[in-house]
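REQUEST ID: PR-0412
SUBMITTED BY: lab tech R.K.
PRIORITY: routine
TASK: structure prediction, single protein chain
INPUT:
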Amino acid sequence: MVFVILSVLCSVSVGILLKLAKKKQYSFYQIISINYLIAWFLTKIIYQPVLKTDVSSTTKSIIISLSFLLPIIFVFQAKAIKYSGIVKTDIAQRMSLFISILFSFFIVHEQINQFKWIGIFIAFLAIFLTFYRKNDAEYAKKNKWYFLPLVLLGFGIIDILFKNVASLKEIQFTELLFLVFPGAGLVSLFISGYYLLKGNEKFNKTNVLWGLGVGLLNFGNISFYIKAHQVLSNNPSTVFASMNMGVITLGSLVGILIFKEKVNRWNYLGLFLSLVAIGLITYSQFLN
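STATUS: complete
OUTPUT:
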């Protein structure tokens, strides 16, 4: 469980750095660009993956899709943290699991037992309550709440793409990251360059240091998560549940206690129900 704890700490720390970057008005786009270059370099040095080019057209299309989606969703995540806080963003990211479950049911026609159905229903309710806020036009204008469902949808799609690659069994996870990270870095560099050319932002060496920090933590999150699955290979559901619940719980504590994020009683109920939903969905895996 040590690797799970380390993965949770890295995941939540990424959110903390993005939150602090917003307060200091650093560039999300430059930080995210450096992040992917650092993550790619560390993947190459530590895992020494083999560069595979003889993969199927399906795998190539997934790699290209991930190269575009990862930096874009990272921007949405940063924006969601900026406008809605770490608490709601972490819950949105982790509750994206129900999208891949619905995909498995409606597209792949996977059988879903009653516990998983109950978990999905509670997940919908948890998402509604977590995002709930009294109708306030000024709040909607300032906080741009729509980044939360974009995070939810985006991470759900990314999860589906990763699962599709895993089912093909022609490329290892580290080899996939070795191909995706430079693509994601290139896309994020284009985005960053666009804002630099428009004059909306200026290059700042400090952004490089923050990108280095985010890249190290992002890589750590992925590496420790892989290690956890390797050590607990007979209990993948334990890793899944511990990771999701750990990120939601720790992220919520950090957001509420350290950053003093405003959370109403309905949001607290949504937080509790999100943990219940993950628990039920995880338990349902043992019944299949």
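NOTES: The chain is about 80% helix and 0% strand.
REVIEWED BY: pending
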